[in-house]
Design brief:
Layout lengths: L1 H14 L15 H9 L10 E6 L6 H13 L22 E4 L8 E5 L13 H8 L34 E7 L8 H17 L3 E6 L1 H4 L7 H4 L3 H14 L6 E3 L11 H27 L1
Parallel strand pairs: 1-3, 1-4, 4-5, 5-6
Antiparallel strand pairs: 2-3
Helix pairs in contact: 2-9, 3-9, 4-5
Bound molecules: guanosine-5'-triphosphate (GTP) and magnesium ion.
The site of guanosine-5'-triphosphate has 21 residues, from helix 3 and helix 6.
């Protein structure tokens, strides 16, 4: 059944090369978004960093996205921040870590990388750990245990999180070519996390990665990406599966095989990052009003 789905996807991919009109307005170049990101400061003074939590299936490109943002802001490919893995197996990221972005400008936003999601009950990151992380209860370097979530009193449990420790924006990271292949249990876990985020008032956004693999025709040309019907179908499908509005789903190609940065890839990353920052700021704004 899975192979039939893969064949069907390739066929749809082939016949839906793209229409002439993009289905989303895209910036012509990265200048505006780069300047926005570089000049960003949280409006709420008591918050040192906007905290962005990355969550999604194993191997989707969570750690790669952190590296891609760093590469984009440094103007050269970097690999020192969040380690990635090219083998297929369990999640390569096993610890809860905060990643600051090293760049010429100080970037007042941080990424929290998490262990990947898997279908089994005792595999991959525990949904309860993601919920605790959103509330700021998970300490730095906590080692995830798929069989049992963190509990109060554990060394990795932070009983008194500050607003800075809490997550301000949740970002789902999913492989664009695997949306239709996602196991029901993985989808259910993501919906569960989304429900918890809604209950906490945390906004959510999704990144569909590996668009170069899902649709080689869209590869690094930003214009083709948003003209491509196959990628549009993946965005629609993800929206229906997890319940996120279409406007909150973005397409990204992470830096993976490149040795120099590229304006088209940067444009997609910066445009997505700008929305992530905006949504996170909305969360902080709403707190002020309550
Ligand atoms: N072609 C391509 N490869 C990508 C992209 N994003 C990530 N990869 C590759 O996919 C593999 C997995 O990426 P990771 O960033 O380690 O994925 P992850 O979600 O952090 O995975 P876990 O930590 O294991 O849950 C690596 O080999 C990356 O180079 C992309 O946009 N395009
Ligand atoms: Mg990882």
């Amino acid at each position: 059944m899975k192979w039939f789905k893969i064949w069907l996807m390739s066929y749809v991919n082939y016949i839906s090369a793209g229409s002439s009109k993009p289905w989303r307005e895209i910036p012509e170049n990265k200048t505006d978004d780069l300047s926005f990101v570089e000049n960003y400061q949280p409006k709420k003074k008591m918050v040192k960093h906007l905290r962005i939590l990355l969550h999604g299936p194993v191997g989707a490109g969570k750690s790669s996205f952190i590296n891609s943002v760093t590469s984009c802001l440094q103007g050269r490919i970097t690999c020192s921040n969040a380690f990635t893995d090219a083998t297929s197996g369990g999640s390569f990221t096993t610890q809860y870590k905060t990643h600051k972005i090293n760049s010429a400008r100080s970037c007042p936003f941080v990424f929290n990388d998490t262990m990947g999601l898997e279908e089994g009950n005792n595999d991959g990151v525990h949904v309860e750990d993601i919920k605790l992380a959103m509330k700021g209860h998970v300490r730095e370097n906590y080692m995830f245990h798929p069989e049992s979530p963190l509990s109060e009193g554990d060394k990795g449990y932070n009983p008194c999180p500050t607003l800075d420790d809490k997550v301000h924006i949740l970002v789902f990271v999913v492989d664009a070519g695997k949306v239709s292949l996602m196991d029901d249990k993985v989808v259910k876990k993501m919906r569960d996390v989304r429900r918890a985020a809604c209950d906490l008032g945390i906004p959510q956004l999704a990144i569909l990665t590996k668009i170069d693999e899902a649709c080689p025709m869209a590869k690094t040309n930003v214009e083709n990406v948003y003209k491509n019907n196959y990628l549009k179908q993946q965005v629609d499908m993800f929206s229906q599966l997890v319940g996120l509005p279409l406007s909150c789903i973005f397409l990204v190609k992470n830096y993976s095989s490149e040795i120099v940065t590229n304006d088209d890839i940067d444009t997609m990353i910066l445009n997505t990052l700008r929305q992530i920052i905006n949504y996170g700021e909305d969360f902080l704004d709403n707190l002020e009003q309550n």
